[in-house]
Amino acid sequence: MPQKTTAPHTDVLLPHPEGVSNDEFRAALSRLAAGVVLVTAHDPDDGPRGADAGMTATSFMSVSLDPPLVVVSLRTGSRMDDLLEEQPMWAASMLSEHQVRIAGRFSMKGRISDRLLFEDLPHRRGEVSGAPLIEGALTVLECRTEQRIVTGDHTLVVGRVLTAAVPGGSGDAGPLAYFRGKYRQLGHG
What we know:
Elements lengths: L4 E2 L6 E2 L7 H8 L4 E2 L1 E7 L7 E7 L2 E5 L4 E7 L3 H8 L2 E6 L5 H6 L8 H6 L3 E3 L6 E3 L4 E13 L2 E12 L10 E4 L2 E4 L4
Antiparallel strand pairs: 1-2, 3-13, 4-5, 4-8, 6-7, 7-12, 8-11, 9-10, 11-12, 13-14
């Protein structure tokens, strides 16, 4: 456990000079609710017809309105990070509260191949990106990578939004959220 020191003349604990531990950081940031997004891309070089790849992300946000930019944080060296380094076109489907299983299947470690995960998943192919767009998602975006920033153990991928759609099928569903290590529904108020 990292050492803590007390600030002079106060009872405030200061973090170790090196920063907080992984556990402290994880516990603190787990209190920040985040939307859940399925990031997808099509790898044209994987097999004779190419292959689709997907990953669940909770570090996703808008960056700019003019031009329309979003950013997603990917573990450096992950399959999606490697793919988006080569393939600039990708998509993001903002999942609804009814899509917990989709989020879970694409976030499992040691999961089966993405090809099998997409097999029975209702989706359509993005006209611009060629990436899978998930049916029933609250919103789907198609993006082109504008910039990659490697920082710490993650790569921030800044994407220009080329298309944005609010597909039917999600009804009045709310967003799927991630809070304190679990998928959550926000509730309707």
